[in-house]
Amino acid sequence: MTKFLMQERQGSILIVRMNSPETHNALSTPDQMDEFVDLAKQVSEDDGIHCIVLTGEGRSFCAGGNIKDMQNQAGMFGGSAYEIRGRYRKGIQRIPLSLYDIDVPVVAAMNGAAIGAGLDLACMCDVRIAVDRAIFAESFVKLGIVPGDGGAWLLPRIIGLPKATIMALTGDRIDAKQALEWDLITEITTAEDLMDRALEMAGRIAGNPGHSTRMTKRLLREGQHMRLDSLLEISAAYQALAHKTEDHVEAVSAFVEKRTPEFKDK
User: Fold this and answer.
1) What average pLDDT does the chain have?
2) Comparing C-alpha atoms, which of 48, 62, 65, 49 is closest to residue 17?
3) In terms of residue numbers, what domain contains 122?
4) Which end of the chain, N or C, is less surrounded by CB atoms within 10 Å?
5) Are residues 129 and 150 in the same domain?
6) What is the pLDDT of residues 19-28, one digit of tens each?
């Protein structure tokens, strides 16, 4: 069986491609959910990975749930309401719980449409770069359903509640220009330049000590729902750990000596 998530390692950058272009990289099968969970575990255990670039094969980033399965009430959409609830909890909801929670920064190289769960998947990433033809929609209401994979929590934290409310309650699509204006994405590029731009961003992140970027991402995540005094306590503890790393000593020495640092993930 062909894996859904294809991996390619370039130094400290891990490129991950969703590989189901015939379905526009739809997310519906248990195997796909397992692969995302396994990816998060793999990355969390590999200190040599400093950044992930997530993209899709074909003309779409991710089209969300499989509409044909919804129509046929098959797969994760089959059975009783109780069974469907269980499949969401044990299936696609494991993606935000695992992917959003990893400490390694993730750059979404959005090669096309990000619809429904596909948009929510992009919102689990830290940086989003999109091609000029990309479209975006929190489209669940168009199908008479709700954001079942965390979109109601993720999207408002990126674009703000008023704009997220419009997207979620209308289900309307927005284009790349509007997505940039709303801070849903950070950059628009061409299809030809997408991976170069995403890898350039990933390289700027990965060029820093891995322990520093991981702990910084964790602080940014925790800061979204924590009191300032509590965050400062964690920041002090993380800072103490960072000061005692070899990479910190090397970074300071290289800065003073005006040379390129050589980090060892220690």
Assistant:
1) 93
2) 62
3) 5-206
4) N
5) yes
6) 999 999 998 8
